[in-house]
Design brief:
Strand order of the largest sheet: 1-2
CATH class of one domain: Alpha Beta
Helix content: 55-70%
Strand content: 5-15%
Shape: rod-shaped
Mean pLDDT: 76
Structural class: mainly alpha
Number of strands: 4
Order of helices and strands: EEHHHHEE
CATH architecture of one domain: 2-Layer Sandwich
CATH topology of one domain: Herpes Virus-1
Radius of gyration: 62 Å
């Protein structure tokens, strides 16, 4: 992009004329051809600016032909950069949503574990209640087995009471001659006899 030396035999990519020492030329970044600044419409101010830039500055110049060719490419690159930024934004959003979903899954797992523990406790309680019910059933069965014997004892006491009533209705001389026979466990029927007149039961 600097002024050309007098012995430079390069030809302008536009006018095909060779460069002389006093000619000002610029080099296209894409096609690498040299051009007179007049042939490319480059002002002296722009030429001076480009001439003062180092190769590492990142500032480049394109000829008109390459600019027409590369303009679409640059637009495509710009669109790709926009798309990449959009994809990165979507990726960050999805990452956040995944983090939220993972937290929900962890919370659900904790609830499931808690429910499992509760179910285990309920099962243990049910087994304990079942054992208690079996104990109660056994106790009730034993009580029911004792009921007939108890009823029999009560019936025998009632028989004794009836006999006493009958004895009390007899004359005093007859009641003295009564002999009582009662089984110790009240399992045999009670009997009594009256000696007077040979009457007995």
């Amino acid at each position: 992009m600097n002024e050309m030396d007098s012995d430079n035999t390069d030809i302008c990519g536009k006018c095909d004329n060779t460069f002389k020492k006093e000619h000002k030329a610029v080099s296209c970044f894409t096609c690498k051809q040299l051009f007179h600044i007049q042939c490319q419409g480059v002002s002296d101010t722009k030429y001076e600016f480009l001439s003062n830039q180092s190769d590492n500055s990142g500032i480049v110049w394109f000829c008109r032909a390459c600019k027409r060719t590369t303009s679409g490419m640059f637009q495509h690159i710009a669109n790709l950069e926009i798309r990449l930024k959009s994809i990165e934004t979507e990726r960050q959003k999805e990452k956040h949503e995944m983090s939220v979903l993972q937290n929900l899954v962890n919370a659900l797992n904790k609830k499931i574990n808690s429910l499992d523990e509760s179910v285990g406790d309920i099962q243990e309680q049910a087994e304990s209640n079942g054992e208690q019910m079996d104990t109660i059933k056994d106790a009730v069965t034993c009580m029911l087995r004792e009921v007939p014997q108890t009823t029999s004892i009560e019936a025998r006491f009632a028989s004794i009471e009836d006999s006493l009533k009958q004895v009390s209705s007899l004359p005093s001389n007859e009641s003295r001659s009564i002999t009582w026979k009662v089984h110790p466990l009240l399992k045999l029927p009670m009997s009594w006899m009256i000696d007077n007149g040979g009457r007995g039961t």
